[in-house]
Write a structure and sequence with these properties.
Blueprint: E1 2-7, H1 12-15, H2 27-40, E2 47-50, H3 54-67, E3 71-73, H4 85-102, E4 108-113, H5 115-126, E5 143-148, E6 154-161
Parallel strand pairs: 1-4, 2-3, 2-4
Antiparallel strand pairs: 1-5, 5-6
């Protein structure tokens, strides 16, 4: 199975315009989501999953429209908030196990979630513990591809790839 993990586009929370717990995408975030959707258009996805938070759903909908598919909400894929590292990691492992148990073989799945939670998802997918001194960076609409091989091995094909954003402002480092 191939699992794509995507972070949502820029939100009003990222810009500081909405400090609420569930901000929508900014105008730039909608453009980023559209560009990611176009990138994924020619990859036949079997399922499009999303966090229940609006910024992730709005990002997922751009890909779903181009794939002529529906977005399926994954209730446990919300952003890390008031929970311990261990609690967030256990939640991420549960999400990964749910996906691995449901999909197999040559199926392709994408999940749209959040920067911090995606770090936990990637660690859970490859069996690494979460560490305070290491983080899988996730820029807005950054895409990570993980392959679960038939022999039980797991491979990261690429991580935090945002080449689809070449026509908009790229993240500053």
């Amino acid at each position: 199975m191939i699992l794509y993990i995507a972070r949502h586009g820029e939100s009003l929370g990222n810009t500081g315009e909405d400090a609420g717990i569930n901000p929508a995408l900014s105008e730039k975030g909608h453009i980023q989501a559209e560009l990611l959707g176009k990138r994924m258009k020619n990859i036949q996805l079997d399922c499009i999953l999303s966090s229940p938070l609006i910024r992730a759903i709005q990002t997922a909908e751009k890909t779903a429209t181009l794939q002529n598919k529906q977005v399926e909400i994954m209730p446990d894929a919300f952003e890390v908030d008031n929970e311990t590292t261990d609690e967030a990691y256990i939640r991420a492992k549960t999400v990964i196990e749910t996906i691995k148990n449901r999909f197999s073989n040559d199926e392709r799945v994408i999940i749209f979630a959040h920067g911090t939670f995606n770090n936990y998802l990637i660690n859970a997918a490859i069996g690494f513990p979460v560490r305070d001194d290491f983080n899988f960076c996730q820029e807005n609409t950054g895409l990570t591809c993980i392959k679960f091989m038939p022999d039980g091995k797991t491979k990261i094909e690429f991580s935090n790839d945002y080449c689809h954003l070449a026509s908009v402002d790229e993240p500053e480092f």
